[in-house]
């Protein structure tokens, strides 16, 4: 039952993958090749030839988007899963690829959302447009729950429909004339949104990097924290901790150095804390635990992986009052303008759910779900350890970063998919520094995770 | 490495203190004397330059500005019984059949069978099919050409991200401010000319009573993109089939793209086209943006959609839909699955009928307001195919009229100038509100005017 459920969840992606398996697009312009070290080309699904007489407007294609090499990483993974299912329709595919939450949302949270839904049908309970920055009660609850003694207030917090959307909105705030640095490997939305905004140069195939982005290598050798003395100054630094994909949490000492680096260079850190509640030890959960961070950092966060809100859509971003552009203008003011113009607030029903998440009962319920996924992570880590692999992450994040030395990660991804029907995510999808590793996500029903581990053991013994 | 920016501020404190004592025993009743302290304080500025495009925006976005005026007015007049006919915010409850569907979906999220995580960024296929079936029947628009979103305002910005800074745009004047503002933000608009209040690189297509709210296409210079809203916000005018044919022909002849905003299409009562795709050939030149906000009272629930036909191509033949899909997958993560469940219920037979009743309610409001203004001898446009009335106050500044109306009648409206230079002398009145408030507003306006 649960495997079938997993399968039917996977079919949700068929629409994006079906889209990327076109039937009437010009095959000359269809590009599904992914940057690979070896000269192999990934074959795309066959498309019929376009008629030469098709009408074209005189509007030039946005050159920035043309720089992107392939589809966004996760729909690509989904496309391959769908193609695999077409080939093996009876395969019991287990998805440990896209970080897709699977466990039901606790009752205390959904009952609040159901209540809000019903209220919208009453005169007293109906509400139309909400404040674009989010409902006051939710902003206040976020401030007190996560930033209680860190000096971050309600008005510094803007509620959103998720961290991925916020990243793009932040990029719109920054504009095309800023430079940025990312960890390598890192969550692909930072680089891709930067390309779309026009901050980067072209993709350099030989090094598999975009020109004009500073890639900060994060490896086991440097404790997944870059050697800052080798990092060139950029305007913006994207930093994710606990890290997606490596699972590494930054220590207080490391973050203190990062904040100092940003201060010395007059840079702005965009700190992605989407997995903060997965931290098991004493590592900082918020950048604002570091003194001085309010003058150099923005923090983005999400309910997706805490409350299973991946489909409900709710997150938040903190822009402190103290964060200023070089001319002294408050970054929060420009972010507010973007939020009011390019956005219209998160869904009021989702926000009602968010508020329930932050009640004592809701927090406890979220911790239980997080604990469940952490237990999954433990099982996966133990499996790969027992098979003799070098394994990273998994202690402070729902991702396990498995090293396959000398191997091409898309090859490993394909091999695992073909031989075990398990979907993972190839490390190179997260940047050239991800090559040679595979990300295994720990979201799944317990039976599926156990079954997947059995299959890994069978394959790699 | 460059040093971070520092600003030194000197703050001046004047404190009253006891004067400093010498060795002798002090008189406890010593008079306090003022002592001036100069304190230097450093504030850290980053070295990150502010986005020059945002500097070009002269004020806040229009609707929060209206809210601000409203708040100020309430602070000065705490007992005022405000009637809000300003921001087009829906007021009537959402029909039960729709909220029940959302509640049921929500309860399902707490079960193993009903739990849903990430959805397709383009939206649930069932909903996309339902939208195609309901609104684009016989127009050749397929479900996979429909992208479900969290609303038209958000989609407009995503479309601007898609188009990029190097395209030129034309807008109606007056028009919904998000088109111009997003154009400025993305870097298409050039400098603001203070004298005219227009951005140098944007073409403003005057739409007024004198040209039946449709620009003379023979006089418009070619731009890459035309934003066109029908039924129009703020004027309420629904473009005729003939007008839209001209627009599509103009687009085709010039190789440009129309971004057609049909957010108020369900308010049309006179048979005017509800979709640009009713016009033959539109699939090769147009994108259509629409919304559940005013259709279903989903202003807070957040749901909309954009149609990008497969036949719409850039100058190099590349299908626009592919790049829009890339934007949607990278800069967005899908509309809330709860809102989408509601959307599906909106398009069921029962849901749709219930929503038609709500729309009728608002249009009855509009009739009351139109009659009220007309009885005062004012020229009123709109109100017949849209929930907005566009009232002419010849020779007057619209912000002044806005302030006068607010002060004298406690009614919030929107000054026409907020929608563009050609909006001067006009006020937009929205028809959203409970009936008693609309009747009360009508009474107050008759009395004042």
UniProtKB/TrEMBL annotation, chain A:
InterPro entries: Aminotransferase_I/II_large, DapL/ALD1, PyrdxlP-dep_Trfase, PyrdxlP-dep_Trfase_major, PyrdxlP-dep_Trfase_small. Belongs to the class-I pyridoxal-phosphate-dependent aminotransferase family. LL-diaminopimelate aminotransferase subfamily. It comes from the Eukaryota. This is LL-diaminopimelate aminotransferase. GO terms for biological process: systemic acquired resistance, salicylic acid mediated signaling pathway. PANTHER family: AMINOTRANSFERASE. Keywords: Aminotransferase, Pyridoxal phosphate, Transferase. Pfam families: Aminotran_1_2. NCBIfam families: DAPAT_plant (TIGR03542). GO terms for molecular function: pyridoxal phosphate binding; transaminase activity. The lineage of its organism: Eukaryota, Viridiplantae, Streptophyta, Embryophyta, Tracheophyta. Residues 92-456 form the Aminotransferase class I/classII large domain. Its cofactor is pyridoxal 5'-phosphate.
TrEMBL record, chain B:
One of its GO terms (biological process) is systemic acquired resistance, salicylic acid mediated signaling pathway. Transmembrane segments: none annotated. Residues 82-444 form the Aminotransferase class I/classII large domain. One of its GO terms (molecular function) is transaminase activity. Pfam families: Aminotran_1_2. InterPro entries: Aminotransferase_I/II_large (IPR004839), DapL/ALD1 (IPR019942), PyrdxlP-dep_Trfase (IPR015424), PyrdxlP-dep_Trfase_major (IPR015421), PyrdxlP-dep_Trfase_small (IPR015422). Its cofactor is pyridoxal 5'-phosphate. CDD domains: AAT_like. Coiled coil: none annotated. It comes from the Eukaryota. Belongs to the class-I pyridoxal-phosphate-dependent aminotransferase family. LL-diaminopimelate aminotransferase subfamily. PANTHER family: AMINOTRANSFERASE. This is Aminotransferase ALD1-like protein.
């Amino acid at each position: 039952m649960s495997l079938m459920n997993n399968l039917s969840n996977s079919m949700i992606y068929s629409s994006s993958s079906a889209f990327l398996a076109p039937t009437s697009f010009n095959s000359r312009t269809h590009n599904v090749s992914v940057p690979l070290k070896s000269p192999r080309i990934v074959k795309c699904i066959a498309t019929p030839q376009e008629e030469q007489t098709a009408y074209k407007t005189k509007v030039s294609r946005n050159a920035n988007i043309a720089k992107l090499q392939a589809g966004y990483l996760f729909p690509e993974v989904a496309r391959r899963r769908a193609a695999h299912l077409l080939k093996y329709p009876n395969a019991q595919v287990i998805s440990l690829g896209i970080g897709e939450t699977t466990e039901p949302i606790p009752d205390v949270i959904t009952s609040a959302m159901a209540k809000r839904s019903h209220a919208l049908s009453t005169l007293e309970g109906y509400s139309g447009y909400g404040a674009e920055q989010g409902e006051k009660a939710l902003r206040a609850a976020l401030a007190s729950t996560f930033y209680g003694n860190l000096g971050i207030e309600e008005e510094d917090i803007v509620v959103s429909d998720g961290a991925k959307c916020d990243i793009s909105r932040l990029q719109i705030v920054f504009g095309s004339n800023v430079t940025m640095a990312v960890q390598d490997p890192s969550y692909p939305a930072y680089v891709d949104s930067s390309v779309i905004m026009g901050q980067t140069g072209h993709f350099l195939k030989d090094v598999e990097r975009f020109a004009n982005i500073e890639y900060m290598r994060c490896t086991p050798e440097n404790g997944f924290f870059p050697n800052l003395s080798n990092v060139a100054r950029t305007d913006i630094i994207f930093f994710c901790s606990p890290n997606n994909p490596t699972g590494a949490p930054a220590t207080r000492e490391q973050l203190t150095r990062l904040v100092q680096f940003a201060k010395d260079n007059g840079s702005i850190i965009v700190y992605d804390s989407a997995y903060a509640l997965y931290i098991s030890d004493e590592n900082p959960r918020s950048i604002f635990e570091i003194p001085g961070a309010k003058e150099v950092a923005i923090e983005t966060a999400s309910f997706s992986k805490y409350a299973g809100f991946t489909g409900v859509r709710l997150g938040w971003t903190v822009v402190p009052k103290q964060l200023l552009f070089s001319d002294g203008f408050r970054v929060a003011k420009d972010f507010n303008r973007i939020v009011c113009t390019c956005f219209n607030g998160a869904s009021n029903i989702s926000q009602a759910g968010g508020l329930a998440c932050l009640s004592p009962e809701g927090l406890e319920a979220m911790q239980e779900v997080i604990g469940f996924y952490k237990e999954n992570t433990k099982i996966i880590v133990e499996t790969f350890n027992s098979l003799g692999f070098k394994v990273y992450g998994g202690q402070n994040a729902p991702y396990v970063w498995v090293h396959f030395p000398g191997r091409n990660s898309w090859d490993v991804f394909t091999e695992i998919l073909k031989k075990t029907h398990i979907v993972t995510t190839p490390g190179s999808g997260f940047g050239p520094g991800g090559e040679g590793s595979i990300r295994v996500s720990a979201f799944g029903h317990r039976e599926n995770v156990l079954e997947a581990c059995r299959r890994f053991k069978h394959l790699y013994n | 490495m460059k040093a971070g920016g520092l600003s030194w501020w000197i703050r001046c404190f004047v404190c009253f203190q006891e004067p400093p004592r010498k060795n002798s025993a002090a008189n406890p009743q010593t008079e306090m004397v003022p002592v001036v302290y100069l304190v230097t304080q450093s504030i850290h500025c980053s070295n990150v330059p502010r986005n020059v495009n945002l500097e070009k925006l002269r004020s806040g976005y229009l609707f929060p500005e209206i809210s601000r005026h409203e708040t100020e007015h309430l602070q000065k007049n705490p007992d005022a019984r405000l009637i809000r006919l300003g921001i087009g915010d829906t007021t009537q409850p959402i029909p039960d059949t729709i909220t029940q569907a959302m509640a049921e979906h929500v309860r399902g999220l707490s079960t193993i069978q009903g739990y849903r995580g990430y959805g397709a960024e383009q939206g649930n296929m069932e909903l996309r099919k339902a939208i195609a079936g309901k609104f684009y029947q016989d127009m050749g628009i397929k479900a996979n050409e429909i992208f479900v979103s969290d609303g038209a305002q958000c989609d407009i910005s995503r479309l601007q991200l898609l188009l990029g800074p190097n395209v030129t745009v034309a807008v109606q004047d007056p028009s919904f401010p998000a088109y111009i503002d997003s154009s400025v933000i993305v870097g298409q608009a050039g400098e603001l000319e203070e004298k005219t209040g227009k951005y140098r690189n944007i073409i403003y297509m005057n739409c007024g009573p004198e040209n039946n709210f449709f620009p003379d296409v023979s006089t418009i210079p070619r731009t890459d993109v035309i934003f066109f809203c029908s039924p129009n916000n703020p004027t309420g005018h629904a473009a005729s089939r003939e007008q839209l044919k001209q627009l599509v022909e103009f687009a085709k002849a010039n190789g440009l793209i129309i971004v057609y905003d049909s957010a108020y299409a369900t308010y049309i009562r006179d048979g005017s086209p509800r979709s640009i795709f009713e016009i033959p050939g539109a699939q090769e030149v147009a994108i259509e943006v629409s919304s559940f906000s005013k259709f279903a009272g989903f202003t807070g629930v957040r749901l909309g959609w954009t149609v990008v036909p497969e036949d719409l191509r850039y100058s190099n033949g590349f299908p626009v839909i592919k790049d829009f899909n890339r934007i949607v997958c990278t800069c967005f993560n899908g509309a809330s699955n709860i809102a989408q469940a509601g959307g599906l219920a909106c398009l069921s037979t029962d849901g749709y009928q219930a929503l038609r009743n709500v729309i009728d309610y608002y249009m009855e409001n509009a009739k009351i307001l139109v009659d009220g203004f007309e009885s005062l001898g004012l020229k009123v446009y709109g109100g017949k195919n849209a929930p907005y009335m566009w009232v002419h106050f010849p020779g007057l500044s619209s912000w002044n009229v806005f302030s006068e109306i607010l002060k004298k009648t406690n009614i919030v409206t929107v000054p026409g100038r907020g929608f563009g230079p050609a909006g001067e002398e006009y006020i937009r009145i929205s028809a959203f509100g409970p009936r008693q408030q609309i009747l009360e507003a009508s009474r107050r306006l008759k009395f004042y005017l």
